[in-house]
Amino acid sequence: MRAHHSAATRREIEQTGYRLVLKWIAVLAALMLAVPVQAQTIIAHRGASGERPEHTLASYDLAISEGADFVEPDLVFTRDGVLVARHENEISGTTDVADHPEFADRRATKVIDGQEVTGWFTEDFTLAELRTLRARERLPELRVANTKFDGLFQVPTLAEVIALVKAREAETGRTIGIYPEMKHPSYFAGLGFDMPARLVEQLAEAGYQGPDAPVFIQCFEVRPLLAARRITDLPLVQLMSGEGGPPELVDVSYAEMATPAGLKAIAVYADGIGPDIGMVLQPDGTPTALVADAHAAGLLVHPWTLRRENAFLPPALRKGDDPAAAGDYAALAKLVVGAGVDGFFTDFPGMAVALFPRTD
Questions:
Q1: What is the pTM assigned to this prediction?
Q2: Which of 17, 58, 156, 231 is 20–30 Å from 298 (CA)?
Q3: Which of 4, 5, 55, 87 is flagged as catalytic?
Q4: Strand pairing of 177-178 and 181-182?
């Protein structure tokens, strides 16, 4: 009886999956017949991180060459208060720090946003010490080709990212935006670092001021965005995830923030939201109400993150069983854009620009 129940359950799962695939196909077919969508704002997620180790000058530079509108550096502090670009302040997965015996005693266990993390942390290194490390691919199992660049690049500072952007603007004659994310600002505030103030100050020094500047400051936390709003009129974006809530607000969930009332509250201090793609699309590929509700509140919508590997795609859009193989990136991009978003984050900006070419 138990075996019969198991087989029935498997058949039900298979049938459900088949129905979802058919639904995705139907949604895509409708989009193909629809009026062409407008060009999108393409945000290079950690640079062209699908083709170079993330958060390196090489990754940002390639993204600019591929036509990205914005490059996105995640920002954390060094011990001497310098903003550098890393996905997290824990750097064992993105640098060769574990291969440096002189830093073996820096390995530590800390609580970051309520989670216990063990490794090496940027705030325990001066910039000069961090310069002795080299970046490496964070997802070597999925992005084997990127590993050939391991050991070639340093951890860049925010100042260097800005300098690169300015140089490429002068070279290309086009505006290239910067989309910095404040990583764990409340945690860093506990160490004496005021991330909103330092970021706004450094952007102002580089000439980024006013609501029309090619900048978006983003964060998963709320209070740091409120602090930034008090000192700048640069555009701000509230990041949101499909689960949990702002780490510094234990009684608030992103689901509550994504309601019409929650979006109106966000619009008091921010100019847009950056939701998980799963908050924009239903499991069958049809749009949720989030984009329309956000637009009704006067907010831009920039979801994250479009990637081409099967591991990151909905089952209906995967090709084969290899998690590292390329699936139907174009189909997902068209579904996301068809939901009415204003732009999106992607690890493959060149593919995005090819799908949604510029009209100017």
A1: 0.90
A2: 231
A3: 87
A4: unpaired
